Amino acid sequence: MSNQRVLESNHPPATDAARQPITFLEAIREGIREEMERDEQVLVLGEDVGAYGGAFKVTDGLLDRFGEGRVIDTPISEIGFTGAAAGAAHMGMRPIVEMQFIDFIACAFDIITNYIATSRYRGSGPQPIVIRGPCGGGVRGGPFHSQNPEAAFFHTPGLKIVYPATALDAKGLMKSAIRDDDPVLFFEHKWLYRRPQLREAMPPEDHTVPLGRASIHREGRDVTVVTYGAMVHKVLDAARALEETDEISIEVLDLRTLLPLDEETIVDSVQKTNRLLIVHEDTRTGGIAGEIAMRINEAAFEWLDAPILRVTALDTPVPYAPPLEDFFLPQSDDIVSAARYLAGY
Amino acid sequence: MIEDERENKMSETQTTDKRAQAKDERAQEAANGGAPRDHPSPAAPAQDPDWEQEAKPKLSKEERTMGLPKEKLRKMMYDMLLGRRFEEKTAESYALGKIGGFCHLYIGQEAVAIGALHALEEDDYVMTAYREHVHALQMGVDPRSAMAELYGRIDGCSKGKGGSMHMFSAETNYLGGHGIVGGQIPLALGVAWKIRYRDEKQVMQVFLGEAAVNQGAFHESLNMAALWQLPLVVIVENNRFGMGTAWERASSLYDISQKASAYAMPSAIADGMDILDVYRVTKEAVDRARAGEGPTLIEARTYRFVGHSMSDPVHGVYRTKEEVEEEKLNDPIRIYANLLADLDTLSQEELEKIDAEVKATAEEASEFAEKSPEPDPAELYRDVYADEDINGRLYFDGRQ
């Protein structure tokens, strides 16, 4: 575990590789690898992240390149290793903690919300940590391997939450998250990991995407749909369908970062379309849609021509049985119906 | 307290027949390959009524000082007394309503922190739990800055935003008290890991109360510390009560040091009322950690002379007045003062001089805190994130 060994293994750089389109998962890995090459304080720890390469192989190959000093296989001890990351962060390290499934982040809830999020405020200094892991449903993972627990942390000042929807954003946001001096929770929807349609070529230069800034995936006139993560793609499907069948023009806004929320971009869009639909895969009650609706109520009430609607998962645990899970998750048809209702309001 | 020259009640070797018998049984059992699984082990009683330390070696008064220079022996007394007087001043200010919130005093346990911290080098790291004022002072947090933090003032070490349980001083390697029971142990693991990773020579010393041993974080951290052979010294301050729950009502195993065996980690028991015993045991562990020989679990058996927090009476519900009075006869400061007097290292007169000095320091700290301004409302939003403006609006992409 000596520094020397790490430095020796720390080459060659991967920047000269041919720029083939890569998957969402590979984009995340490339972001991590580039940052580990750029800054030797960056390290990865978690269950099976080293020799095994991660449960989903996100960290595959990092052990060979950076050595076990910087790619650490831990016991199944989320409290222990998340706390250890916080201690290492006090020492100037920039740990990337993998939750094998993001559902397991609940085990480390105390360390994250009570300690990491408040460290700077309590005068204990910055906590430049990225806590990342696969989230989301649609893969028949059942109640403990399919959740979207972002709302549990959305309420915690001091944290940042990133939830990308495209390969380019996944890489760019990962690199920004690692460089950020505040703790970042990085949600990776596992349904996006290997989807061939999401393959994108990465720009040759240092590619970062700023935290806290939403992006407009598709411009539109009639209804703004605010969404993030895997739902971006279902909303885009719905938008294409509505364009064809109803000639309704949907503006698709991908939040990309949930905390801090890019209120400005949402308000700008609502002032243009005067209608707002919020779509998220997380369950309904206490979900982020409620907060966004309230922000628009406060900031752009006069611009609204229709009530704000939301399409979300239902208020139940994530069911395993395929018909149940499909019914539980928001589908393109649900989005089409809601947007159509708003457009005709 | 200091004037009372009564002999140290905690005589050095009081091995009762009962304990000798327990030891014999233990040896017998080990020879037989351990107790059968379906019977409770007589070697690990759920309750151990004998509080006197079995592990403490029989040493002469001269041997107890381990050849430490007089200067250091006196400094240890100074530090314990400063801790005591600071805490007394804190109690007074709390009673006057100058300090609010939850406030836990260290009175009675001084030998543990002061003894253990004296075994460290300048650049070693320290973390502890929420009964932390004395650790903070000992690590170099200015008493004025500590008191200002308790008063919630801007000159406090956390700008008045942390309070009693959350002091922090990166400059002195004091990495804080922690308001969550057991929450600091994994953090210390991370610091120790960094020392190892960067091939440094420091040691990480983490304190916790005995009740934190029942937290999962303790076990996860001990396992990893031992697995990776990190330079970590874990000191359990066993003051016998997790708030109002006696240790024997909270743990199936009385002897905390035995928990280390689950992680193949060396362990030791220290007499937490004897500063030199704490020093001796800790120094061994620190030396071992620094030499790359891995972590140690230390159980320091101590007693708190005050309530759990300012809202908890000294005695009543969970312990009797008689018990507290009897334990107070083992005041670590008196025990040490007697020893130093016997060794002609510190006279009564010199002791009183030190006492006057630290009383003045505590007084001055409280006067300083009194005068320090309250934080400006704008401070509310400051340090939530790395970048923010005065209204707490967050800009991460250069927009104004």
How does this model look, in words?
Chain A has helices at 3-8, 24-38, 62-66, 78-90, 109-116, 150-154, 167-179, 231-246, 263-273, 288-300, 322-328, 332-343, and strands at residues 42-46, 71-73, 94-98, 130-135, 160-162, 184-189, 215-218, 223-227, 250-254, 257-259, 276-283, 309-313. With 345 residues, chain A is of the alpha/beta class. Chain A has two domains: 24-198, 3-Layer(aba) Sandwich (Rossmann fold), CATH 3.40.50; 215-343, Rossmann fold (3-Layer(aba) Sandwich). In chain A, strands 2-1-3-4-6-5-10 form a seven-stranded mixed beta sheet, with helices on both faces. In chain A, strands 7-9-8-11-12 form a five-stranded mixed beta sheet, sandwiched between helices. With 400 residues, chain B is an alpha/beta fold. Helix content of chain B is 38%, strand content 8%. In chain B, the strands form two sheets. In chain B, strands 1-2-3-7-6 form a five-stranded parallel beta sheet, with helices on both faces. Chain B has a two-stranded antiparallel sheet with strand order 4-5. In chain B, helix 3 packs antiparallel against helix 11 (332-342), helix 6 (143-151) crosses helix 12 and helix 7 runs parallel beside helix 8 (216-227). The interface between A and B is large, with 49 and 45 residues.
